[in-house]
Every structure is written in C-alpha cells, then in structure tokens.
Design a protein that fits this description.
Elements (H helix, E strand, L loop, with lengths): L3 H13 L1 H10 L17 H14 L9 E5 L5 H10 L2 E6 L2 H13 L6 E5 L12 E7 L8 H11 E10 L2 E2 L9 H7 L7 H11 L2 E7 L1 H17 L1 H6 L4 H19 L3 E2 L1 E6 L1
Parallel strand pairs: 1-2, 1-4, 2-3, 4-5
Antiparallel strand pairs: 5-9, 6-8, 7-9
Helix pairs in contact: 9-11
Length: 277
C-alpha cells in the first residue's frame, strides 16, 4: 500500500492520463464512470449506468430547487447533470482529475447547465469547503480509491446539514471474504483492502450517521465488469486509434477479469448505501 499522499498523486496521475481518459470516455459512454444496473442481457453500458443514477435518485426525498448536492469523485459529471435536470437544484462536483473536470465543464457548457453546476478540483479526504453546506453528499464508485475511508465519512458528515443524506455506491469486498483472495485487485489500485458493508456500517456509527437503507446488488458488479470487458475487446482498434497504448489495454483486460472472477466467487459486493446525519 502506498503512503496516503503518494496514493492520491498516483490516482490523480492515472485518471489524468490519456490512456485512462480515452478508455473511460469511450467505453463507458462519456457521461459516467460507475457500475450500472442491468435489467436485461446485452443492455448498453451507458443505459445501465443511467439506471444506477435513477435508482439512487429515487432514494432521495424532498429534493427541490432550493437544495444543494455535493458529488464527490464526480468523474465526467453525468450524475450532476441528471440531478440538476431532475430537481432543478444546484450541484457541486469535487473530483481529483483535471482532465475529467475539464470534460465535465465542457459538457455543462454544452447543455447550458454551468449556472447550476460548479466543478472543483480536489481530494475528498480533505475538502476545502465550509461546514453544513449541503443537503446531500453523493458518490459513485469512488470511495474505494481512498485508504482513509474514515476521513471521507468525516468530511461527508461535516459538509452535510443536519438531517442531510449521504448516499453512495462502492465496489466492496464481501463481509466474509477470505484473506488474500483479492490481492490482484488490491495491487492494481494500491490498497490494503476494499471497503465492505460491515466497515461502512462501523464508520457510519463512529461519525454519527444513522443507516437509512442498504441495497446490496453484487450480481450487478459482475454484469458491469463483464460488459466493460466485452466492449473493450470489441473496441481495441478504436482505442488504439485514439492514442491508447496496447500495454494499457492489455493490463485493463487483465484487471477487469480479476473483478469478474472475484464477483463470481462471491468475494465482492456492490450496492447503494444511504445514511442520514
């Protein structure tokens, strides 16, 4: 495992790279970088990704134009744009990657949403914003990259107004995952362990959150990474034309297969966790 400062730098360098940007923007559909909810076989990745955003949005109650939402690890900002279009609220995006943030801003400009969405560069373990600004803190498949998940929870709690909601998805290890079996995945993302439902319940209790709802959908993790792997194989040539290196594509295929295998062995979990301040 890398030291915390180095891990943040390595993660930022990875997502800022041309390889990663072209891969995620091309294969995921250009709006989101998160696990989708697949309702049928061969559902497009972008459609499944939108399903996840819609499912999470359905868990939010009473959100209106007067509310403010913070999306931590916001990627290309697809969720923020959906939230603005759904609730006419304001959304702040916090994301480590300058490259993704620039694409986010461009898409917001193109859709005339820049007056509703503010994009910040930064690390969600140390967010440079004042206390109790937001009604919702939202995150999709980003917290796994932190080796200080307690800090992420503390920051979410600090930034929420009383009664506010912290809602997120995350690729996790199963609560009963045997030791050592996920090492290939952990080596790739430079971590000692993934989060888990058990860990997130403990962290919620430590900072003062009340658990509202947990929807576990481990099968969707397998569906998603299988779909991404298949689409990657189908689009190798396109990615090479866009400037992706063959070495990156080969490593990505190997890494995706590790996620698929771990999910099929029931070592992994994924779902939506909702908690209230």
């Amino acid at each position: 495992m890398l030291e915390k400062e180095k891990l943040v730098d390595v993660t930022k360098e990875y997502y800022d790279s041309k390889n990663a940007d072209e891969f995620y923007h091309t294969i995921w559909g250009g709006e989101d970088i998160h696990i989708g909810i697949y309702e049928r076989e061969n559902m497009p990745i972008l459609e499944a990704s939108h399903n996840t955003v819609r499912k999470m949005t359905s868990q939010l109650e009473g959100i209106s134009e007067s509310n403010e939402i913070l999306d931590i690890g916001s990627g290309y900002g697809g969720a923020a744009r959906y939230l603005v279009k759904t609730f006419d609220c304001k959304v702040s995006c916090l994301n480590l990657s300058d490259v993704e943030n620039e694409r986010n801003r461009q898409k917001n400009d193109e859709q005339e949403l820049s007056d509703k969405i503010t994009v910040y560069g930064g690390n969600f373990e140390e967010i440079p914003l004042k206390d109790e600004l937001f009604d919702v803190v939202w995150s999709q498949d980003a917290i796994l990259h932190s080796d200080r998940k307690d800090k992420v929870f503390h920051e979410a709690y600090r930034l929420l107004k009383k009664g506010g909601t912290f809602i997120f998805t995350d690729p996790m290890q199963a609560d009963d995952c045997p030791k050592g079996v996920l090492q290939p995945i952990l080596d790739r993302i430079h971590l000692k362990q993934l989060g888990s439902v058990k860990l997130y319940k403990e962290l919620a209790g430590e900072v003062g959150f009340s658990i509202s709802e947990i929807i576990e959908m481990p099968g969707q993790l397998v569906n998603h990474y299988s779909s991404v792997l298949e689409k990657l194989r189908e689009n190798e040539g396109l990615l090479l034309e866009k400037g992706c290196e063959m070495e990156y594509i080969t490593r990505m295929k190997k890494g995706l297969q590790h996620w698929v295998d771990g999910g099929k062995e029931n070592y992994l979990n994924w779902g939506i966790l909702k908690m209230v301040k």
